[in-house]
Amino acid sequence: MTDMEIYVLGREMEKEEAERYETNESRVRKVEKIKKLEVEEPGNIEAIVEGLLYIVGDDGIRPEQLAVTIDRSLEDTEVILNNIQRKYASELYGIELAAYGKVYKFISKKAVYPYAQELFHTAKHNTLSQSALETLAIIAYKQPVTRVEIEELRGVGADMMLRKLQARNLIREAGRSEAPGRPILYEVTEEFMDSFKLYTLNELPDLPEYNNDEENENLFE
Q1: All structural domains of the chain
Q2: If we measure between CA atoms, which residue out of 153, 197, 151, 193 comes closest to residue 170?
Q3: Residue closest to 168 by CA, chosen among 106, 119, 201, 127
Q4: What separation in angstroms does the CA of 188 have from each of 44, 177, 193, 205, 214?
Q5: Positive or negative, the Cα torsion across 54, 191, 182, 131?
Q6: What is the DSSP string of the chain?
Q7: Phi, psi at 77, each rounded to 5°
Q8: Is the C or the N end of the chain the one with fewer CB within 10 Å?
């Protein structure tokens, strides 16, 4: 191989190496740019808000509280909520994002109600679960009562059970409490009265009375 051929071959190798380096460098820069964008502006912020709305359940959430939670301005937060409202307004979804008194929460669409009643229709004939009976008893004796109060007495979450009892038309919403956040109040329905053969709630058996002094004495025996 002549000196000229060696020179030309060397130049071609250098050119290929330069192109390969340039290609790799471009890829690295592109990946770094994508990562930077993901850090600066998460593309799943609406999904995060949807998850938060699901967690708060019937209590809902105010835009001001949500803005602090997701670290966004109130204006941006309202835009996000409006986008989610438009999304779930589609007939493709069975739920929608409602805003009552500027409190946002997910609710079932009216078209779902007849099917929900049919789904839980057997509750009229079947025995209720222990959890359902406990929840109903708390509402019947303490109504109107909030979800938080029910959970404090039972020691477990009550959101799903309340939804089921509402779908079975055994309880209903009875306005909102004056407590911070104005949580929903619940009370039993006429359907509950019919199911348990009650004319008035005064027919409910009296709760057992406990002597606190005797309990305290027993603790230290």
Answers
A1: 45-108 (1.10.10.10), 112-203 (1.10.10.10)
A2: 193
A3: 119
A4: 40, 16, 8, 16, 34
A5: negative
A6: --HHHHHHHHHHHHHHHHHHHHHHHHHHHHHHHHHHHHHHS-TTHHHHHHHHHHHHGGG-B-HHHHHHHHT--HHHHHHHHHHHHHHHTSTT-SEEEEEETTEEEEEE-GGGHHHHHHHTGGGGTSPPPHHHHHHHHHHHHH-SEEHHHHHHHHSS--HHHHHHHHHTTSEEEEEE-SSTT-PEEEEE-HHHHHHTT-SSGGGSPPPPP--HHHHHHHHT-
A7: -65, -40
A8: C
